[in-house]
């Protein structure tokens, strides 16, 4: 199974029924990421996987800290996702700045 297929299956399992609007959102982000494949080169698969998984930390059964980038990345690390993917999820959308604001 490819990284992209694995990421879609996982994201769908965690978000589709519990958070259908979030599921629709991440699918849209993934579609946009796919358009960047020509410039992403060898990182295209990683980029699309990160796009579909970037909000997985909102899944109700994954909420721990309440900070979705960290909750998502922690879960991905537990399921042995590639380290770069875990880091991309942890640091998406200026997460470092929000983390500072949250203390």
UniProtKB/TrEMBL annotation:
InterPro entries: HD/PDEase_dom, HD_domain, HDIG_dom. It comes from the Bacteria. Coiled coil: none annotated. Pfam families: HD. Residues 22-94 form the HD domain. This is Nucleotidyltransferase with HDIG domain. The lineage of its organism: Bacteria, Bacillati, Actinomycetota, Actinomycetes, Pseudonocardiales.
């Amino acid at each position: 199974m490819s990284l992209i297929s694995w990421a879609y299956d996982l994201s769908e399992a965690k978000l589709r029924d519990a958070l259908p609007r979030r599921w629709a959102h991440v699918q849209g982000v993934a579609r946009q990421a796919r358009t960047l494949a020509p410039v992403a080169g060898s990182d295209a698969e990683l980029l699309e996987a990160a796009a579909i998984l970037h909000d997985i930390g909102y899944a109700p059964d994954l909420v721990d800290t309440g900070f979705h980038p960290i909750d998502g990345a922690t879960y991905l690390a537990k399921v042995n996702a590639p380290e770069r993917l875990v880091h991309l999820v942890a640091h998406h959308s200026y997460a470092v700045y929000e983390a500072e604001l949250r203390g």
